[in-house]
Amino acid sequence: MTPDVLGLDQEDRQQVAHWPGGVTEFVTGPVLTPERRRHCLDCAEQLEAHLAPVVERRRHPGDDLVSMLRTAVDDLARDPRRARAREALTAGYFSGAPTQEAAARRLGLPYGTYRRHLRHGPDLLCEAPWQQELHGPAAEPS
Q1: By the 8 A CB rule, do 107 and 114 touch?
Q2: How far apart are CA 102 and CA 55, in angstroms?
Q3: Could you report the per-residue pLDDT of 95-107, keeping only the tens digit for each?
Q4: CA 63 to chain centre
């Protein structure tokens, strides 16, 4: 996500931009020295501490893009057939899970099953506005 979408201050953008690289290195690095491992973990901790207030603000939707997406994801709960996709989207993008594997564990799902539900989520998010356009706001999802 871009700093604009997250609502980050201009002065914090350079520092925040550095932290995800450390997290990525931790997740994808085959072998890390103890110093690199500590650096990566520090990046993760700093990123989490910095973004926690941003995430908290997002719990109360407004007119920004993230709030609109959050509301659309929550609306998926109205249809039981879409509950797993909603849970996967929430765990993966809104709950602060550090990795997709961690999000799958939070939901008690095998990783492959979690990924399937996560891949299905964006399709469902696009379908809802399309159905409203075709049938009006009271249309039930198909």
Answers
A1: yes
A2: 18
A3: 778 888 989 999 9
A4: 18
